[in-house]
Amino acid sequence: MAVIFPAYGEKPKRVLFEGAVLETRERNFHDDSDFYAVCWDADKQELTTIEYATTRFGGGGTAKADASDDVLNAAREWADAYAFKWYKEALIRDASTPRKGKRVRVVRGRTAPIGYEGEIFWQGSSGPEWQRRPDRCGLSASMKRKGKKYIDAEWTYVSNVEVVDPDQYIPDDAEIKSRVKGKGYAVWRAMSAGVLPVIGGLRL
Fold first, then answer.
1. Segments making up each domain of the chain, as ranges
2. How confident is the model at residue 22 (pLDDT cuts 50, 70, 90)?
3. What is the pTM of this model?
4. Given strand 161-163, what is the order of strands in its sheet?
5. Collapsing DSSP states into helix, strand and coil, what is residue 86?
6. How far apart are CA 202 and CA 98, in angstroms?
7. How many CA atoms lie within 13 A of 130 on its CB side?
8. Hey, what long-range contacts does 118-124 have (CB within 8 A, 24 or more apart)?
9. Residue 78's pLDDT band (boundaries 50, 70, 90)?
10. φ/ψ (deg, to 5) at 41
């Protein structure tokens, strides 16, 4: 059926995205709703949305899903590539973020020797309870203990360390693609609505 303006009355009608409407959806607000169609833009080779009706005023158009299998496959393939791009960028950012289990180097501060390298074995809070955040860390070069304590532990603020060789924490492209396969459309739809989705516990 495509997207048709107007829904009633006037002729000739404008027909948009014929054979390329994946679905119709609704955005709900406090007093009104907007109705839109998710479409495959063959010229730009990407997904897009078009609003065809609203409760804010009269008139508008109508729409109905009519995408062919070829269009659906093209849209899914594009959406998975879209999700791959955003997820890989998030993984790169996360790889450089100090956290428990990563090897880091002290690059500033006064409580731990500059240049000291070790694995973060603890990350936690400091300061009053009302403003606590995981801003301090303990690190050990050997990860060897004597009793309950690490024999060469150093303590500092997370902001004083940098991850050593962050690339080691980034999966290869094949692994990233396997994680986003089939999730691309949901990722695109969420991000087009201004929501940052989560994949594998990582917010994009």
1. 2-95+172-203, 103-163
2. very high
3. 0.77
4. 154-157, 136-140, 117-124, 103-106, 161-163
5. helix
6. 14
7. 0
8. 118/142, 118/143, 118/152, 118/154, 119/143, 120/161, 121/150, 121/153, 123/98, 123/99, 123/158
9. very high
10. -90, 100
Report pLDDT digits (tens) over 188-202: 988 888 888 888 778
Matching residue, tokens 């005023």: 57
> What mean pLDDT do residues 56-71 have?
89
Residue carrying the six token digits 């679905």:
23
Other beta carbons less than 10 A from residue 111's beta carbon: 11
List C-alpha distances in Å: 56 to 32, 59, 193.
6, 10, 19
Token duo for residue 81? 């590539």
Rg, C-alpha atoms of the chain = 26
